[in-house]
Amino acid sequence: MARMAEILLQFVVLVAIAEVATAEKTCSICTVGAPGGSWNLQTNLTRWAESNIFYPGDIILFNYDSSQHNVLEVTKTDFDSCTATNPIAAHTDGSGVINLSAVGTRYFICGFNGHCAAGQKVQINVFTSPTGVSTPNSGVVSVRASAGLVVGLAAILAF
Ligand SMILES: *[C@@H]1O[C@H](CO)[C@@H](O)[C@H](O)[C@H]1NC(C)=O
Ligand SMILES: *[C@@H]1O[C@H](CO)[C@@H](O)[C@H](O)[C@H]1NC(C)=O
Ligand SMILES: [Cu+2]
């Protein structure tokens, strides 16, 4: 039981470190898919999300052709199953300004037929700001340090 918890915790820590190591703080007002992509079927939105790190107070902007796409904020369950019938919020006018006001995960899909299943979906992980406020371009090192603390904690718990 304790061994199981230890393995699980180490796995969580490794995932956290991997995420921090690949993400960089590249925006505080972040246009989804930019640069080089957009909220469409061509952009690898998972890669876009993973190439950024988001803190509370960051803003993400959706820009899209409203005759081709929309933006639905959904639950994790609806994100996973690409269910568009039960959105938390819907943006259908070609834009969408989302305030990532709190730590947590937000889920967005396109509600047009087949688009989510084809990959037009994005999960945004909002991390605790290292300084308590949004600090573009200065967070990564501090986040690494707190990941180190978690490793230390895991080591202590292992004994
Ligand atoms: C999108 O990017 C992710 C992360 O880099 C990668 O794992 C995935 O295979 C890519 N998807 C496509 C369809 O290329
Ligand atoms: C975003 O939300 C936070 C927390 O509610 C708030 O303090 C901040 O002013 C908001 N930012 C904008 C641009 O509305
Ligand atoms: Cu779409």
UniProtKB/TrEMBL annotation:
Coiled coil: none annotated. Residues 1-23 form the signal peptide. Residues 28-128 form the Phytocyanin domain. One of its GO terms (molecular function) is metal ion binding. It comes from the Eukaryota. GO terms for cellular component: plasma membrane. InterPro entries: Cupredoxin, Phytocyanin-like, Phytocyanin_dom. SUPFAM superfamilies: Cupredoxins (SSF49503). Keywords: Glycoprotein, Metal-binding, Signal. PANTHER family: BLUE COPPER PROTEIN, OS12G0150500 PROTEIN. This is Phytocyanin domain-containing protein. It comes from Rhynchospora tenuis.
